[in-house]
Amino acid sequence: xxxxxxxxxxxxxxxxxxxxxxxxxxxxxxxxxxxxxxxxxxxxxxxxxxxxxxxxxxxxxxxxxxxxxxxxxxxxxxxxxxxxxxxxxxxxxxxxxxxxxxxxxxxxxxxxxxxxxxxxxxxxxxxxxxxxxxxxxxxxxxxxxxxxxxxxxxxxxxxx
Length: 160
Description:
Blueprint: E1 2-10, H1 15-25, E2 30-37, E3 43-51, H2 54-66, E4 70-75, E5 81-92, H3 98-107, E6 111-116, E7 119-126, H4 128-138, E8 143-148, E9 152-155
């Protein structure tokens, strides 16, 4: 099962390396990773997605708590949360495919951010289900390149 884990850390040299090392040292994979400063000076939030059963996730969380510079660890599976990912797609754009491409961009509330003679670059933001759906629909049009951010997540409402 996939789990989204938020790790609040002190923003210091080597913290990300220690977190990533914990995963590689124990043979766990990180499916997605995103790091950025928070509203509190000197702290960053690491949002990562990993797979494992409840026992494995519990072990990962316990090990994360033991790391120096880790302030808080939250398994986002425990409550409802909002998550988003940013994707930039460079898609083949011929006279035949442009109308369909623009229709899909509109349906998925994306934006064309660059136009070249034979391709459009599209920006899309959404949860993993939306991103997966748009990629499947755009593949027949000819995706030339995909760049994705890692997932970012936040508890809904007053949680957290």
